[in-house]
Structures are given as structure tokens and as C-alpha cells.
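=== Structure Prediction Worksheet ===
Name of assembly: unnamed complex
Input type: mixed (protein and possibly other molecules)
Chain count: two
Listed entries:
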Amino acid sequence: MNQEIIRIGHGSGGRLSRELIHQVFLKHFSNPVLNQLGDAAWLDPQNLPLAFTTDSYVIDPVFFPGGDIGQLAVSGTVNDLCVAGAQPVWMSAGFIIEEGFLISDLEEIAISMARESVRAGISIVAGDTKVVKRGQCDKIFINTSGIGILPKSRLHLKEGGDVHPGDKIIVTGTLGNHSIAVLSAREGLHLEENITSDAMPLNSLTEKILEIPDEIRFMRDITRGGLATILVETCENKSFGIQIHENKIPVNRSVRSVCELYGFDPVYLANEGKIMLVVRQGSEEQVLSRIKTHEYGKDAAIIGEITDTNPGKAVIISSIGGRRMIDMLSGEMLPRIC
Amino acid sequence: MNQEIIRIGHGSGGRLSRELIHQVFLKHFSNPVLNQLGDAAWLDPQNLPLAFTTDSYVIDPVFFPGGDIGQLAVSGTVNDLCVAGAQPVWMSAGFIIEEGFLISDLEEIAISMARESVRAGISIVAGDTKVVKRGQCDKIFINTSGIGILPKSRLHLKEGGDVHPGDKIIVTGTLGNHSIAVLSAREGLHLEENITSDAMPLNSLTEKILEIPDEIRFMRDITRGGLATILVETCENKSFGIQIHENKIPVNRSVRSVCELYGFDPVYLANEGKIMLVVRQGSEEQVLSRIKTHEYGKDAAIIGEITDTNPGKAVIISSIGGRRMIDMLSGEMLPRIC
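=== Predicted Assembly ===
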């Protein structure tokens, strides 16, 4: 279907819609639940608690170093489920496409989604396609909603984090790679070190971590708003504080250079394949070495701890000992990063 | 928040995002599951089979006679679940908003969603907001995904329709009202009879119908592609055919006039509050009178039947006895109708 383009009729619900569904989506996403093509898909949760999440993806450009909007959409949804402790099982995919978009590009995106969903063990079981006229959206937007099931051994994760002073804070890898990869593609930057997006389904990593579930207070994926936003949300209005050691935060050299050039702080950059964990004091080395054996966790580091001082505040300690309070991102540094 | 507008920072994941979530979405959607604001929402399906569906809404204009995009999004998702026989329980809402959109308009949309979700008994438990620059989307797009549970008495509906020649075809009301209401708003038409959208959650109607579940072969909501598309899908590659009596199809006079003016056929028009049912032969009058007692079913009619002639084909018989085959919509008559 090279050079064939999306036409308004592909969103009509009629003949062209059906052709597109068969020629692109069913071709790559085929599974028994989806293939029924009913108004709704049927699932069997086997009496386990479910996790449910949704995200829309509006990233620009659609194809970027290390991934594309399809890979990102599957990863993002899988990661929202697995950091909650759930095993991702089913997902939906809703496409809003600009008239004139290349069907070959759509198929490349569908192939990425199929590959990542197989990698993560999640089935795409429901979908929708809308087409709008040229200029009414920018190329393609994708919404994915996901459902995961929570194994009985992890029921305590459902209650949220029971955090104590002394607990340690771990990040599973370098911060900012996704944001800087997208920025470099958008702005045509030439970096000395090749930076690619970290967009990746992380459920194999969280499964490894959750083999010792009782050591884990909670996990969050570090997306829009960056590490800073999660740190603020973790301690805001709580009886404990957080301190982070700036020189322990893993950041690639190229990412750091671009941050200096643009005035970005890596703690505010969005990631699509990085997790922040709070772990029980004393178990941090055990959890860290577990994470480091996984290919997506080799740059993991213990970066700070929960404190009984500065309740409600997250503080960052610089390499020369300066202390500054971390606030949430106000405004937006990089629109359409996911 | 009158005249406040959406800014790029409202999609940042940081401070402004959080303010928007609290000031608009939590204010109107508040429920114990959503209020946790985790990466994923926790659900308890109580060991019942689940139905799962997704749809994106790109309707233009956002506010139209009889509804708005928010009412439409909740109705559409509820209806996809309830025609499958499921009771809608949980849904997500993903917003893609153009920079500069009025926050007062967003709030009006949120209020509609809250009202319709209460009416339908479904909780909005997960959400996402993205903001794109001016010109990168047209005002606002909403994706909703929904989850429903299937009561044990209706397990046979999960298998799809076991249809037999002689079974009757019912529609629950007049066709085309939604499409013509949106068209009239878009084009500034002045109609002799005021036509409003039929967008409405129909689960109270399907619950009434499903009090006698064994009489119902299956149900479909008549959305994009219209009645024609559903009829074709019902009999395509099957050993039975369908015949429909044109003069029995309920259509408002104004809708009919606009159709004549624009060259539309009402069987291709999208509806957002109408269902097609196939019912067991002999039970059609009982089902029809049940539907007619409901406020959303007062114009219901038996419009045709399953035949053992013309296998695989849907045929429409005109008021003067002419027969023509129904095909799916090819191309698109009315873009952005939902």
C-alpha cells in the first residue's frame, strides 16, 4: 500500500474503514478477542483486581531516534500498569489521523505497536479510527487505554506507598534520553554521542523487581513533569521529606550538554522507559543489583532517601553541598514530547 | 475561570496540569477510584466477564443542538457496552486540547460528561490531558474507553447473534437525527421542525429490553456507517439474507427534507441514541411494546426480517415494491459527525 494515503472515507465507518482495519490493524494486531470486531471486546479477569489506565500520544515528530508514536503508546500504557504492580493484559488503540497521512507510515506505526505489545505480552483488543481533514490535526494522535491484573501476592501495592523515613529512592537509569532524542530530531541537533529514546515496555523489569514485593514501597514511571514532579507528589502534605543527591542522578553526557545549552534541568525532563522506586531501608542494595541485571536497568542508581526533616518538601543537594527545594514544573519546556 | 484559556503548560504534567485536573476534572468527575490519581485506577470486577471498548470523538462543532462532545463521548462508550449486553461500570477520558481553548467551554464539556455518567451509572476513573499548539488540532478531541460487566443471565449474548430466518429486525427510534442536528449547526440550516441530536446513554433502555434476554439475538448501536453498514455486516458471508421495508423505517419529516436536499439516504446516517435489534420470531411485538414504554424508544418500529432467500445480502423494499441491495457506505458523507 506504498504511497496510498488516508482519505476522509477511512473514518466513515463504512467500506473504506473496514478495508483499513483489515489491511493495517487486524493484519498486525490479530488476536482472538480483537478479531471478533464487536462493539465491545470480551475479557476474563479471573476474579483478580484490575488496573486501568489511559493516555493520548501527540508526539512530534511521529518517528524519532529510537522509536515512533506507536512504540511510545504501547510502552506508555504498559508502564502505567506495571509500575502499579499490575501485569498488563489487554489494551485499546484509538487513532485520530489527518487526511493525507501515508498509509505506509500508519502501517509502520502499527508494526511497532504489534512488536511492543508482543514483547510486553499485552493484547490489543479494541480499537477506533477517526479521520479529520488536512490541518485539523497534526499527522496522527493515538490514545491507548490498558487493563492489567494484580497477582494476589502484590495486593499491598494497591494501597499506595507506605513510606518511612530512611527508605531509599532508586531510579532505574539515565534521565532525559527520551526528551533529548525527540528534541534533537525536531531541531536537527547534532550530538557528539547518539541519544535515542528510552521508550520501552518495562514490565519485564518490574516483574523482576516484584519477585521481592515486600521490599518495594511503590513505583512510578518518570514521564511528563519528570522526576521533580514525582518527588513533589510523593512528599506533598506528608509528615516526611525527600532529599536527592544531584551527583548521583544518572544523566548521559550528551543529555547534560543539551540541557546546559537550552537551560533545561534533567529532573524536569520526560522519560518513557525509566522508573522511580521507593524501597525499604536496608534492601536498597539488593533491589539495585536486581535492577542492574536487567538490560533496561544497567544504569540504575540510589539517588536519595526519605527524611524525617523538611516534612512535605523535596530537596536536592548539589555536588558542592548546596541545597535547593524542588518545585513542580510550571509551564512547559518541551511541548508534544509524548 | 471564565475567559481563562488552555495554555501549553496545562499539558506539561506539572503544576498547571495538576491545577486543571483539580479545578475542572476532579471537581466534576470526583469518585473514590479516580480521586487516588495513580498511574492506573483499581477496579474490582467480582469474577464477571468484562466488555471493553474505545472511541475517539472529533465532532465539529463541539456544541451542537441537543448536546456537546462530552455528552456524546459518554453516551457513545456507554452504548457500545450496553448493546453488547454489559452493564457499564468504569470509563476513562483522554483529552487532546488546542492551546487557546476556553477553560469555561472545557468545564461545560466536563459538566456534560459528569451528568451523563451519573445518568448511566458509570464512573470516570482514569484520565489524561494533552495540549497541542494552535492549529495542531481543531479545538478538542476526546477519547473514552469503557469497561462493563456481563450479568450471568446474559452469557449467551457474549457469543454473538445466533440468528434464524424469520427473526425480526427492530430499530428503537427515528434515524438520522444526530447527523442532521450536527449538519444544521455546521451549515446554519433553518429547519421547519427543530431537530436535536439523539446522543444519550441507552443502558436504561437495554436493561429494560434485557429483562427478557432469551428473546434477543443481538443488538448494535447505529453509529457511523448507519443502519446500512450494520445490516450488511449482519448477513455478509452468512447463509441468510435480510429484507427491510423502507416505509417502516422511522424518520422525522425534517430529517427527510434535509436528506432530499443533500442527497443523503437516512440508512447511512450516524445516530448516537438508536439501536438495531434482531429478535426471535414471534416475540417481536412483546419486545417492541417493551421498548415503546421507554422514553428513548417511543418511535421504535419493526422494520424487517431475516430471510432464507438472498443469502449474504441485505435488500430494501421501497414503498412501491421496488427492491434494491444495500451496500456499505463508500466514502464519507459527513466527516466529523462523532
